[in-house]
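WARN no homologs supplied; continuing
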Amino acid sequence: MVLRRVVVTGLGALTPIGNNIQEYWNGLINGVSGAAPITYFDASKFKTQFACELKNFNAEDFLDRKEARKMDRYAQYAMVASDEAVVDAGFNFEKLDKDRVGVIWGSGIGGLETFQIEMLNFAAGDGTPKFNPFFIPKMISDIAGGHISIKYGFRGPNFTTVSACASSTNAIIDAFNYIRLGHADAMITGGSEAAVTIAGMGGFNAMHALSTRNDDPKTASRPMDKDRDGFILGEGAGALVLEEYEHAIARGANIYCEIGGGGMSADAYHITAPHPDGLGAKNVMLNCLRDAGLQATDVDGVNMHGTSTPLGDMAESKAILHVFGEHAYTMNLNSTKSMTGHLLGAAGAVETISSILSLKHGLVPPTINHFTDDENIDAKLNFTFNKVQKREMNVVMSNTFGFGGHNACVLVKKLEI
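OK structure emitted
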């Protein structure tokens, strides 16, 4: 069968460095760090006392107060970002076949704060089970996609992908496939996460996954730097409207780019550590190129998973050299997690959006907070350290890797009429 072409016609973002697409892009190209001391709870006894929280965000500025109270923060974030993307797409709802529009969302953890609150309340009581009737509907990981479809009446395919930090990239790939296989005309996709909580910070600290640079939070996320010591927990959401090309053209939609392909793989190695030689990372990029029908030399840049962990950055760098060979030295590599922190299940969505905006604007956001080269990482690779770089970008890949060895990669390219 002939696969249909898929384009991007709407974007929405809610991030630690900007509460909409324009603010997010401004933060990226200006090298803004979203890290700061935690304000959501008293973190003074935690190993890590900082995170990349949202700034100046009030859900009731966007959502009805009663409705907002029925949602965990991760679902609130999903609603805000998806609304920006849907408005950006400019649908005529009177003509739109809502049976052919679906929602595939991603979240690695879902309603962690809701679960935490209910369990703490129960533990503080006398053992009598008194739970909020919205406890389960607020907590479950699929509810964000449900809320989005209910708001707009989208009756097409609807589910949530969970693959830890690869969740929203998997969601984008699934949405891409549903459209190109003819099961939908348009899909709202992306991901959201709100794990900056007592349980989230405590759990990741127990794994020794987070940076403990409490004396200097803004420079703590240091991908590829010799002195990196872990990732910074971030929160927020990214949303994209994917649409079948002819459907978008017929309604005169603004098209950002084309989704060229998607790749998936497993490390099959360890529950948290990456394969030391980047085997899964290598395979996922090769699979993505194969799906897109492109050569390694066609790629201009890679938005790396680049979490600022000692093992992860090194393994991914090895994988890039394996896949791209000498061409790797001509590419722009970057890690926007140096600014946003790690949004876990939402990371793939916000980083795919960054890649799309690089295509549009001809600018590569920097990998900030680089001070010292790591002798274990090839210094000839251009990691776009510290300053934005101008470059015409035609093809960009975005990597996301999750605990459990889940790897996903999406390729975006300029539209060829």
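Residues 123 and 129 are 10 Å apart (CA to CA).
OK
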